[in-house]
Amino acid sequence: MSTENQTMVKGSEVEVSSQEEGLKGAYFTALLKENTTLSAVQQSLLRPVPPEEEYAGVVLEEGTVVDAYLRDGWWTGVVINKKLEDNNFLVCFDSPPDIIVFEKTNLRAHVDWTDSKWVPPDLKAARELGNKKADACVMNNETPQVITPIAKVSAPVVTPSPPVIAATPTETEGQLSSEPRSKQNGLEKNDSIPPHKMPEEEETSQVLSRKRRREEEQQQHSDVNETEVSSSSSHQTPNVMMMNSAASVEETPPPALLKALPFAKRSPYWKSPEAKEGYKTMPQRPHFSPLLAAAAEYVNHREWSAVGMTVSFYGFLEQVKGLKPHDSLSVLCSLSESFVELEEYGFDIGAPQSRIRKMMSLKEEQAKIAEEKQCLERKVDEDEKRSRELAEEMAVLKGKMLELQRQEAVAREEKEAADKRVVEMKASGERFEQKMEDVELEFLETASAPW
């Protein structure tokens, strides 16, 4: 079998081997990329993807060393049964010992990448070694139970996808990275089968779980120190308790803020908003807490600011009630923004904002109807213009028709006169015939008269 040199360059598919326990001897497909800082991989662990012509002609029989596609990688094993029903083969693995049934589309003859060339194993030596391994698998009392099937393939197998592997080669030009592709080529993977890294993954999961529990315990202790929690909610997680507490503070101001304003309520101008109609129908309890952040020299102005905001609030309510259908959408937006600014100081803006949103929706519907009306009016104008044009054309045609009718009448009269002349001339012609006959008769009589 001929071999062909192959190079590993950026963007090409390669196969990566691993020295990790449980993965030795297996190759996983990846892509070479550049400019990504990931873990380094020795070039000796990289090789191109074997071209199909290197193994397509090999007949799989008992003792053949093969690469079997299992768990997103190619694992080296030995065929121990030439062929089962449905084109399946029994393949033996010696590290760790296992026997698995494969479809032929998931098998390829084993080839080695040596000195940048694909070198097929010596068939005789490989088959002898394979037979020994096959015998060892069959005779070994510790051989695991045969698992079948491991995969279902709906299309001819092509180079399979790898698990998550990413590396920056130390001796090659490109960057090696790969992403798993689930069910590549129609494969449905069975998670009950190797690769044999499951114990290590379980151990890692346990370590991560213990670490996560420690972090949660530390977080819980930290939250308990920072936040007091009632006994009725002690079974909740710290994050949930803090979130509930924050929500409670945001939704309902503390009693201290409800009872004590950041100023003494002395101004006589409070009577101005209290006299408005909206004060009776929509009383407010603003806390004005942001006024506490005012500079010291403006402390005496807190009450004035509060009075102004209260007057503004009820003034805005009156503006909302006084809105007209022809008012622009910008007026509604401005009122809405003003209410939002007052909400920070504890004003309940739910009702006016709801009304404004309703009116905005009506304004949008009004604008839509107006646009449809304008569109209809444009069509009416176009049709009216067309109607006028047609009326003008009809008038022109009618004039032409009258002229043609006049010409028709003249022609009819001329025709009748011509017909009359024809009749008269025909009658004259008959008289001429009679005269001709009379002359001929007289001529004959004259000629035949006796002497």
Layout of SSEs?
Layout: E1 13-17, E2 27-33, E3 39-41, E4 46-48, E5 65-70, E6 73-81, E7 88-94, E8 97-103, E9 107-109, E10 112-114, E11 117-119, H1 123-139, E12 165-169, E13 175-178, H2 198-226, H3 238-251, H4 255-259, H5 271-274, H6 277-281, H7 302-321, H8 329-343, H9 350-448
Parallel strand pairs: 3-12
Antiparallel strand pairs: 1-2, 1-4, 2-13, 5-6, 5-9, 6-7, 7-8, 10-11, 12-13
Keywords: Coiled coil, Growth regulation, Transport
Biased composition (Polar residues): 227-238
Pfam families: Agenet, DUF724
Structure description:
- The protein is built from 9 helices and 13 strands.
- The chain is α+β, with helices and mostly antiparallel strands and 451 residues long.
- Among the domains are: 13-194, no CATH class; 197-228; 257-348, no CATH class.
- Strands 3-12-13-2-1-4 form a 6-stranded mixed sheet, with no helix packed on it. A 5-stranded antiparallel sheet has the order 8-7-6-5-9.
- A hairpin with a 2-residue loop joins strand 7 and strand 8.
- Helix 7 packs antiparallel against helix 8.
- The model is unreliable at 141-259 (pLDDT under 50).
- InterPro entries: Agenet-like_dom, Agenet_dom_plant, DUF724.
- It holds the Pfam family Agenet.
- Keywords: Coiled coil, Growth regulation, Transport.
